[in-house]
Amino acid sequence: MQYRKLGSLDWDVSVLGFGAMRLPVIENDPGRVDEAEVWNHPQVSLLLSGMSTMQQVRENIACADRSDATLLSEEDLILVNAIRQEYRRLVPVPCTNCKYCLPCPNSVEIAAKFEHYNNANIYDNPRAPRFHYSNLSSDQQADNCVECFECEEKCPQGISIVEYLKKAHALLGEKR
Ligand code: SF4
Ligand code: SF4
Q: What is the pLDDT of residues 24-54, one digit of tens each?
């Protein structure tokens, strides 16, 4: 994930975001620190990364080309580890937004729900996530889930999707 994205959500800055803003910029590209952190391990010679556009392929090849076990300083690595631990503490659903669970036969927008639900917890403020959630059609809302569990069979992270959908709807479906 791109930790630096945690620094913004419409009008708010998360605690994680303040830490992420101090992360190093790799070759003028503020989004590359995640890959750099992986390449920084001398034992890593292969990195599998989801890519959906040719631009992303080019960017990942460029990142691999400059891979180096000294790309990040000791100080950078301490900061990355601290942010990672705090991220794991704050984020309730370990969803990577891969969307392998989709399409849901009942049109539930699973990944979007979890993104909004996680943001509500990261930023300790459900206002913007509730707004985004309310923009989903009634078909896409979590309470449209009929608990067929098709999605859970496809999720590589083994997430209890049905259970978390209920939690997400309880928090985000609340009318304001
Ligand atoms: S398959 Fe799992 S990790 Fe991927 S988007 Fe769906 S819930 Fe998230
Ligand atoms: S369990 Fe719910 S969200 Fe998952 S595929 Fe079935 S209806 Fe869709």
A: 666 666 556 666 677 777 777 777 777 778 9
Ligand 2 midpoint to CA 6 (Å) = 28
Looking at the structure of the chain, the number of domains it has is: 2
Residue 102 CA, closest ligand 1 atom number: 6
**If you measure from the C-alpha of residue 92 to the centroid of ligand 1, how many angstroms do you get, rounded to a whole number?**
13
Helices (H) and strands (E) in the chain, counts: 8, 0
Predicted TM-score (pTM) of the model is: 0.72
One domain for residues 80 and 115: no
Residue bearing the CA closest to ligand 2, atom 7: 145
